[in-house]
């Protein structure tokens, strides 16, 4: 996370070798990125760009999703199975014969995501995956990230969406002016106003509420809505029966 | 009050598509209103915005039925460049809108086309660049700056035209939340102080619900709910359609379900909820 121009996108482009460091080393699965190519790295590191238009080019949604699978040399049957799975998973099946360019912004973003999910990479790098997505799609994405974690996959996400981060509760790395300024659990970082302000972020709404309630004895480090509910109800009970 | 945008029984289908994207929409927006349109992705929000300045049907072609009247003009009978004097549209993807070699040329482009004098143009461009917080970028190429900065350029180029109506289609999606809030504050100020009519398309109601008293929820090409956000965000139908309810409003609803009621109007921001809770817990 971090403000516009903090270097987040530049940083993650090192993870699949799109950019190579001028100084220092980047190792992906133990291999230095300067000693291998993007095509090799891409098999293990799937990258979904911020702007889907930088990534989409095929004539139909179906072809778009099949493209990488063909290049990785999957057999026809597997390609068909994977494409159908990705189309279903991201609610795109009805558009399989449609040009990606006729779809809405949010839908194009899902096509870009589907085309990467289809080859099932070990590590998934998502640049601003929630932009233009509605509530239902975001919830689906969150569920999917949980599934990936259960399968021991690595998910790296760049986002400004503090509410989405509060729901996912990941490890957060905060960047500013090309440097990492904080690194820790979401619960700690998203409840530290000074750090967030430096990064042009805001507290999630629940944390905003609890920052204002801290002086009456409620914990200030709450970002989860269920935890918030429990804390307020028990405080109210305590008032009734001290 | 005077209607500035009037849609009557609008049905629109893109070329080569069988299902209409706008499916029977009638809507009145009064002059000086701040209107928020939301709804699931693909529900027709962007298409609706494209009818306001005639991009639909003049640019996108397709089949349009019904009546679109904007600033007293029958849009289907006017060219998009005629409507551009009345309606400024900020696109969802700023790259679709920027083309000049420098930021300030991009911002000046619309004014040049209106034949404005050089001095007046200079003043307006600087004013818009400052409002959008990109004065320092004025000599850069719009294509070498970040996505968030491009969105600011697109907003500045529309502000510079000082149109009667500004239509913004998810204008801050690439911006960090603090910058997004600053932009929304600028737009709200223009609406309040200069009476510019604002139509804003947004998923992020947590940042924007507080600016409006006219919220429109669309689904499948139709308007499903319309009215005050305090009523609409409490309506179960809104959640069912898949609109993201701001967390402060959601927490208020959860507490109410549990019998902890603050007996006040539905909060639209964390400040409102915090005040209500402080009062209730300090009783």
Strand content of chain B: 15-25%
The dominant shape of chain A is: globular
Low-confidence stretches of chain A: none
Helix content of chain B: 25-40%
Termini separation of chain A (Å)? 42 Å
Helix content of chain A: 40-55%
| Structural domain count of chain B | 2
Q: Specify the CATH homologous superfamily of the largest domain in chain B.
A: P-loop containing nucleotide triphosphate hydrolases
User: Over the alpha carbons, how many angstroms does the gyration radius of chain A reach?
Assistant: 21 Å
Question: What kind of assembly state do the chains in view correspond to?
Answer: heterodimer
Alpha-carbon distance between the two ends of chain B: 42 Å
Major sheet characteristics of chain B: 6 strands, mixed
State Rg of chain B: 20 Å
| CATH architecture classification name of chain A | 3-Layer(aba) Sandwich
Describe the structure in your own words.
The complex is a heterodimer of chains A (242) and B (283). Chain A has eleven helices and seven strands. In chain A, the strands form three sheets. A three-stranded parallel β-sheet of chain A has the order 3-4-5. Chain A has helices at 8-12, 38-44, 61-71, 76-89, 105-117, 135-150, 162-168, 186-189, 193-198, 205-213, 225-240; strands spanning 27-28, 31-32, 45-48, 123-127, 154-158, 171-176, 179-185. Chain A has one domain (8-184): Rossmann fold (3-Layer(aba) Sandwich). With 242 residues, chain A is an alpha/beta fold. Helices cover 45% and strands 13% of the residues of chain A. Chain B has a six-stranded mixed β-sheet, with helices on both faces. Chain B has helices at 45-52, 55-58, 80-83, 103-113, 118-131, 147-160, 177-194, 205-208, 229-232, 236-241, 247-257, 270-282, and strands at residues 3-13, 22-30, 34-38, 63-70, 73-74, 87-90, 165-169, 197-201, 214-219, 222-227. Chain B is built from twelve helices and ten strands. Classes of the chains: A alpha/beta (242), B alpha/beta (283). Chains A and B meet through helix 5, helix 6, helix 7, helix 10 and helix 11 of A and helix 6, helix 7, helix 11 and helix 12 of B.
